[in-house]
Queue: 3 jobs
Job 1
Amino acid sequence: MRLLWGSGRRGQVRFLLMAFGSALGVACLAAVLTIPSILTAHDARTAAREPRPGTSNVLYQEFRDPYGSQPLHRVFLAQTAPGPTLVPPGIKKLPASGEAIVSPKLGAILAANPRTAGLVPGRVTGTIAPEGLGDSEDLYAYIGTTPAKLTEPVELGGFGIGRTWRQIVEPSTLNILRFTLGCIVLLPLVIFLSVCARLSGESRARRLAALRLVGLSTKDTLRVNAGESVAAASVGAVLGIMGYLGVNEFMARVGLPGLHWYPADGRPQLSTLALCLLGCPALAWTVGQFSGRRAARSPISVRRTGERKPPRKFGMLLLVPGLGIIVGYCVLSVTGRDPSGGSASSLLVPGAVLLTGAGLVFGLAPITAWLALRLAGTAKSLPVALAMRRTEVDPGSSLRVVTGLVLLVFGASLTQGVLVELDQASRRTAPLQEYSVSLNKIAPGKRQALAKVPGVQTQVVSYSSWDPLDGSIVPHADLVVATCAQLAATAQWSSGCVDGRIMQLRDDRTGFTRDPKAGERYPFLLKDGRKAMLTVPHGRIDTHSWGLSVFGSGDILVPPSLLPQNIADSAGTLTLVSTSDPATIRSVLDGIGAIAPTSPVEPVGIVIDSLAQLTVIRSLLAVGMVLGLVIGVAAFVVSVADRAMERRGQVTALALLGARAGTLRGVQVMQVLLPLVVGLGGAIVAGWLAESSYLITGGGAVHWDWEGLPLLFACALGVLLVAALASVPMVRRHIDPEHIRRD
């Protein structure tokens, strides 16, 4: 440290840059390592509040309904006899009949929107504490009632189960999420921390060689180099942990789409602190020992700028098994075979992805050096020749500049594959999505408002025939009030529909759950209590719906003009139709919740928890991409600035020889773009193939993400443009004899 601080302002600035770079890397590392802790804390609290059957003086009944695109959980409790009762976490006592204890978020909704009072019958007497909620946005309520009002009561045995079955992210999906975050954040992070530990490599090597020449031993010379890196990394690790704690306190109050947490959930555990505070200095020590080996063993060649050894080519061998496995799965898909399923794919594909990513990193230097040698031999331009010769001599410095950005593009393709696979598993495969709401739960004035919700394409009303509700079995029929145009727009295929006629729907590819015969008559209840009889017509429409649909086989299609007057709403259902992409589904659910907050909504064919889980995963992957982008850009900026500082002597010598400013800037830009073009090209090809192999082994309908390929090319072109523009101001045509003096 005395040598460092005594070497002038340049050494001190380098130390500060190393410390701040390490701080940024440690903060990103702490964020990634804390994500599983946040999810675990959420699941632990939800598991601790789960009611379980047993024996006590309390009955309970649970309801879990969507409120907009969020799940609303209500637990009705009724005490059957006086005496002490079991209490869940977060409240001090169970609510009495006519009382309710709600979460803070639900309490705010009830206060801001009086129409939602029907969701929580009774007077709100308290709020649930954080230990009884999954997160700060949880919609949860304990409602007191009487045993007679519970339709399906269950005797309460206590609260808390070993593991909740309503996990915020399923275990299998969580493993995929961890692997993806590791690829898009942790791999670039290791490169970035290594770059920070090797700043000013040439000047440091010359200083270490001088120490070695004046008598310092090889071991002590390596200790000097590693000690400086460890000191900077240690200071940076402390600063990074402090910075992350501040960001966590802020983000816990803001949250992410679909994911909120309490500040205590995001605070690092002891294992995370140990890894950050000890792992980063340990990595710096290892890098310091490795980077200072040449100066300690061959100081003369360092001081005399001896010829450097070409980069080793063994790193390229990692691409062979990695790409071999990935391409093998792609070939199986092209030939019509299905390699999905089995435990082998779950091990081979992640291993192939890691080998391919490592091969891109370690194989970039020898490939770039070989390509620079070929281009330099054929170049007719002075800037191109200078840039290629410099890249040929020292491809390792270019490697440090572009590796982070190359891994970022490679990780982006993997992220696309994960999102495509989860999107297939979390929503209907049909292009349309239906939402069913009971007509008697909606005021007549709100029906037109529901049809105008953004994203809704059409609405259809259906009715069921009269049911005596006494347990007896009577013939049953459903009618759907719609036109032929509505049927054609909602069904997958239909034929034979005639406007203005009552006809029966028939799908020969579906097993009939009911089959009303032509000529049979079915009663439908009217508002005045009388019944209107409807005869099943002889005319039939051949149709095929998208899975579960309001247009079911055997239903009777009735034009709006022929619908019996004053038909009762008690047996009616309003069905809204929209596209099935998740963003539209969330928008429609939120719109329905704003207009009819107390009306239960059934998103046909999907589970609201799956939709919420997809939102959480998207948010976490977006955070991972942002962290990867920050790390990649930081590594690029630090490396380019460091190279500019290190090569001031070479730039000064070229300027003294008469090189123009444009020539020097062109050399700088081409030195950055050559390895970047090679790396990004390999990242796009290898990443897209890796994404395809993941989709193929996942067993989904989509095997080739053609829609995501233009996005990867656009990202790569954007990276090249930004890198070229950022490299220009790093060259200053300023002649300073200090930079070319001989020692």
Job 2
Amino acid sequence: MRCLLAAVVAVLLVSGIPITAARTASAQGDSSTTRLEVTKVTPSVISGAPGEVTISGRITNTTGDTINGIEARVQRGYPTQSVPAAQDALRGNAATVNETSFRPMIDTLAPGKQAPFELRVPVNGPDSLEITEPGVFPLLVNVNGQPGDGGRARIGESHFLLPVLAPPGAPPAKPAQPAPVAMLLPVVDYPRMQQEGTPGQRAVLADDALAGSLTPGGRLYDLVQSVVDNAGAGSPLGNGLCFAIDPDLLATVQAMSRGYQVRQADGGMRDGTGSASAQLWLNKLREATEGRCVLALPYADSDVAALDHADLPDLIKGSLDGAGVVQQVLGVEPRRSVLWPIEGALDESTARKLAGFGIDTMLMEPSAMSTDSLAPARLYEDGPVAVPVDPLLSEALDPRHGSALETTAMSPDGNGAATVQNALGALAFRATAGAQGGATSVLAPPRRWNLSGEDLRALLDGMRGLADAGYVRPAGLPETTGQAEQSDSALPVSRLDYPQENAAEEIPRPVLDQLAEQNYKVGDLYRSSQKDPAADLDPAALTTPLRNGLLRGASSAWRDNPVAARHWVRVATDTLNGVLARVRLDEFAGKITLTASNAPIPMTVTNDLPVTVSVRLRIPATAGIETRDLGVIRVPAQGRRHFRLETEVHRAGQFTVDMDVVTEAGTELGPAKRIQLQSYTYDPFTVGFTAIASALLVILSARRILRRLRARRSRLAAANGGQAGESAATSAPAPSASETTNPRMFPVSPGSTTESDRGPS
């Protein structure tokens, strides 16, 4: 259920839909039928006069029925004497031992309507809170009414603490020594910037909600203005304040001050409206932080634990570079060696990694350590120093403390005056019954602190009153530099105990894998780039905004919300692809005809980036054609390189060749191009081979013809010889007698007979 609620909240944030709080007043329970908000408690700290407490607020009918006869009373519990009792009081679980009479508030409240109320309750005397001694008392505002036709019932309630330094008519009871106090002032919002501004191109924001927060009356403006008004330069209270600033917020506001655009739901753009407010707020913040303690959160308040678990140390290191942004924008040097991790929790692996990057002090929740003390401790042997934040004060300031929405949602979502009262009560408790032996109580508000300017001024006024009364002493964050080098006995050693629920809420590994893939491309672009003398821009100025865009996908705002984290990684990926595409092959017009087997192909690489980029041409193997590797080609900033790609064609015909431009390591830059080649020539080998084959064909053909001619002659000769013999036999005359009987002409062989040998017939 926690995961589902967190996901819904973050999806609404990403889509720009405002979030409406659905809670009733603190710990009202399911039976509540109204929204009850306490807006002011006067005085917030009782120190003698006046003799009554005034509680102001408003009540909203959230039902579909009219509520009649609304009345309220205040109930008091025992003064808190222990940390568990104080925690019960903060959670609305303290038993009440005193009840004032119900006082009429509102006669009729229609459905959906809202009405103010005010309760005045004496501190002591008849029908009072009956407070006769100093202490920190839990109070309950109990509201009854009659919804519709039903009976009377409790329709709302609100719990808070009331610190009493002295009841009316009695002197203050000053503690033996004031409790040292430091308070963090988180200056954090949600990631908004989809694309940082470049020369000639304005920044693009996902929405324009930040403009309202920066104007007078807005959350961020009032936070800064309250410090300027109530803890300005020279104020002792200012010594106990330390600003924890997200560098991404500063970069976004600075970009807004220069003019920006806002992306619309249909993908279009419109001009942003907050340029003047952004500049005003930056000036206010510079005034408020001058000479003060300033911490730089990781860029976009990124989830360094998740980055470590995904084995992305370069991104952890890059996130810490945001301290330079804080210094550049505000003109103050932040405490670079101090880190306030998300929810004050880390495991040892991440702590060691951060220590290797120069972090020697970490603000930790005691629940994430093996200690209950608020005193500094060393994390493992020779490790960084942990300064515990006060968990009681954290819970007092943040109604969501310990929930899945502790980091992601704005808090409080209403009833800010009650959190102020709880914080002042917890401070008074730390100075008396809950003293920690001189250890500094560090107030750590919720990261996305939603306290109104009026409530923050009430908190600062109350802290100043406690300081003037000797209860607290603004001391600032403990200085721990060099403590890690002290002997083993100087600081206790504490092991880290990373809560399972924190691990479950980290940015999930699949999202970080996508982020890592894109971060490699950013690093590859940096390694492939050089400063161009004409443009005079360092490659880091180009690639750092791209890396920062990826870190927005790992922001604490998206813990336990992978949908939103994936969205912002995709936004950063789209921006990166747009930058990479500015180094590209020019388009080819029509078909290229090769008139020779080794005819070169004219090509052009265009670089619209403000840095020189070293590229290679990538051409997949194509049957029938070979290309020569051109090696590394350096393309100047805002320029072009023309070259001739040498080819070797092995056959005539038409070829389709795909090619693109990549870095030396193979990262694709511009989109691939497809060219059509037409060749009517052969390479020398093919020509030679064809000539030899043709000659052989001629020779073999001639030989065959010759053989056929000879065979024909032989047949003709044989035929002619046969015909001549037959003619001689038929046409020759008979021999004469003399010729026949002449033995000289016809000798007779032995054994043969002739006509003359025969006797007369």
Job 3
Amino acid sequence: MTVLFSSTVKSTFRDYIQGTWGTFSTPAGRVEYIMTKARLGEESPAPERLLTQHLSPVREVMDADVLDFNQLLQRDLDDHRVATGLIPYLLKNRATGPAFFPPIMAVLLPFKEGSPSRFPAFGDAEIVEDQDLPWKQVQAGDAFAVRRVVDAQGEYHPVNLAQLRWNEHASRLVVLDGQHRAMALLAIDRTMSHKWRGSRGEKFRDFYEKQVQRYLADEAIASNMDLSNVEVPVTVCWFPDRVGETGHAHEAARTLFVDVNKEAKAPSESRIILLSDAELVNVLTRSMLSDLRRPDNDDLMPLYAVEYDNPDINTTRPARWSVMTNIHLLKEAVNRCVFGPPKYLRDVTKKISSREGKPERDAFMRQQLEVGKLFKAEVQDEGFTYRRDAIGNESFPLGKADILSTRFSETWGSSILTLLSKVEPYAAHARALRRMEAGWSGVEIYASLARDALFGGVGVYWTLKDSYEHYKEESRNKPGASRRKPDDDVLRAWEVIEEKESAFEVFRAEEYLGSAAEDKREASKSAYLVLNTHACQLGLAMTLGSLWELRKSEVKRWKLDELPAFAGALAQGWNAFFLHDAGRGKARDRRLAFSKTVSDPINQIPKLETARAVYFRYFWLQALASPESWNLVAEWFDGREGFEKMLSDARSMYLGFCIEERKKALKTSKPRQTDDQRRNEAEELATKTLRKALVNWFFVTEAEFNGWLSPDTLASATQDAAEGVDENDDSVDDDEAEDNDSRPLSYEELLDDE
């Protein structure tokens, strides 16, 4: 766009853009915008040239170490996609015509010392004369100003020419949509102008610099390249009603992001949880991640033990070897413990199904968070009135969500994190991770990238993985001298990550089993293939929920504020079970009690799907029933009768599951059997297996088991089996599978040009 004027007025704002003004309404409220463009080329004071340098991905605006998860605005940047797809698209000459990008959308947001803040309120409108043009201008303190050309009568001119001026110390242009296109422009500009060093994006330099330099050094490309012709349309937005003390521009931007992307390629489930305010369960889940980010959370697992950036749309278990759990499990824990519905916590024989009523779930949430004590009968928020007794997952006052999330964090959030941080298998995993981080060596670029992928940068792990797989495939398709030499720092970084997996398994075996001997490493690895599944961890959370419901039914003067202490007592009880006789002679090592590879295992679940959490709840209850464990939690209950009833019901349901699994196996191995023969043999085999597991691993005597296994108990278990294993048995298989034919190429093989 041609510069139509040069200002003769002393301006508070150094940075500005100009273009055509417009406005529209969204779920985020009223939005005003200017249509303009950003371009490459030689250094110039022209606003469209400077705009390229002002477009900022959110990762370069906010400090990732202090970023609250409620402040996330966009999906992770896929640096691999930008480097191998978008940059070549911009720089390569194409017979089909010039490169073209759809408009980038950026939003002006307030920041103070790198943290989200609020804009000052607008002052009165005033007429400003500049270069013989009259403008009507409104200014928000020292943050930004908007001016539009007016006619002789002081009315806005029909050409709608406008300027947005801002102070970068108080305001930043954050890319809301099209961040990959914006990053392609930034990467080219920073490489050509040697501005990577010292920039907020310097840590990502190695994904781009050599790639751009390679194209610029290609004579065939460079001879036909005129970067001044590389222009990209940009829509710069702001929220005129989100200024002043009550303005929440960052919340509006997050809402606008979801709105403009709802028809685009579906973001991953992780992104939806991190971004969307449409459901209260997402807000509460994010609050746990923010609690882990606090600098005073040394008694909880580190944030890097949680996988929250997986780009896959459907994720049912952690994919990275370093993490212990993921954001989907945290959401499931919130879902079951806070929203229920209550039948899943109060009746341990209920199997998880898809038939859940929203009113029942919302009512249970209001009980679990004691919403009646948090709000008056009616709540006013953003011009809407909410009835307290109608607040639910999809209908809640967003402006008051911090009240709900704070109450959740103080009670259920703290309790769930306590279990995942202090129960010994998970505490040991976290200790091993902290050891690895503390002992990390190497200052090379590739070592720094690998460290960031495991302990810091959002999305870096997946970018390195994609880059490595891309070059591996390229090396196979282009053998010999025709193979393009890859970016070695990126490849070495991924190889460091793969090498560190073995080192981590040593640390974890030492922390959990007290030894790094080969048999201990294998035993530890097998145990964690179970312990780190959704089924096992959700079963743990549901055990907390069920036992809390039991306490509420037995104790008249219970208080929700006691829940974290209750969770702490449960953690101590389970640790007493896991650490009983640990490492002493030939005693059973109960740290392996949930493993499927030990002798006489209690775990007979072939597919560790999320819905099978109800059976793991039985395992956790059974572990808590051991004498030493019960002594640590007994004071929270009115005797042991209620607990024994819950344990018996859960055991009966699990026995029914095992009977059904045996029947399935017999139908294949002994097809000539009658249904009665198959049922009788299945009952005998399943009962024998469960008896041996309880006697050998869970301190249950033969006499106790036989006393429990009455004809009525067996009939109840058989009836459960006859009714089917799961009402919603369509989950993705969580079992790990290894492909022996997919051996990764080494760094030397990838670099080999012969």
